[in-house]
Amino acid sequence: MESEVTLVLRDVPYVVKGDCVGVELGAFALVRDQHSLVCAIGDFDSIDHEQYEIVERNVSNMIKVSSIKDESDSELAINWCIQQGYTRIHVYGALDERLDHQHINCLLAYKYPMITLYNDMNRIQAYEKGEYKIEKEDFNYFSVFAYHPANISLVGFKYPLDHYDLNINELKTVSNQWIKKDATLCVHQGKVLVYLTR
């Protein structure tokens, strides 16, 4: 049975699925919106004293770490969620703003396929070996990339592929489009990172 958690990193729009975990200002946003948190994580250097006190009063499980650390706050929170046994992690606030943090968050999504990153324009998720129906929903573009060698097929897209070798140097698999509302991605070998964009 799938165990879901919504991880909010900043004060951004989000949709709650399962439990809630907040990082820094994301924790404050969840508390402000009257959601119950199973955990708040971070060094809390991006919120003011009053916001911190509100979080502290409303969250029983606070994990406060030093600002001098090897991991980003998002990585710490994702690792905590994985350790708790969550099999699906919905992450909001991982994109936009600082590009270095965005890059780390995309790498984390590639590393852990149970993660899905969301913002107003995009949904990003990794897919390991297997066959997947990729529904169009309200998205306009489908892009797929690989950090390590992969082999894929695309069926039901404007630009189909058949057992295509994909690697980090391959950039032409951007901005594909659906010709069927539930096109198929087959990952024959390796792992890929898929961007769905409105």
Overall CATH architecture of the largest domain? 3-Layer(aba) Sandwich
- Provide a count of the helices: 4
Report Rg.
Answer: 18 Å
The level-1 CATH class of the largest domain: Alpha Beta
Strand order of the largest sheet: 4-3-2-1-5-6-7-13-9
Q: How far is it from the N-terminal to the C-terminal residue, by CA? A: 30 Å
The proportion of residues in beta strands is: 25-35%
Number of domains as seen in the coordinates: 2
Structural class: alpha/beta
- State the share of residues found in helices, binned by percent: 10-25%
CATH homologous superfamily grouping of the largest domain: Thiamin pyrophosphokinase, catalytic domain
- Following the backbone from N to C, one meets helices and strands in this order, namely EEHEHEHEHEEEEEEEE
| Shape call | elongated
Largest sheet, strands/sense/barrel = 9 strands, mixed
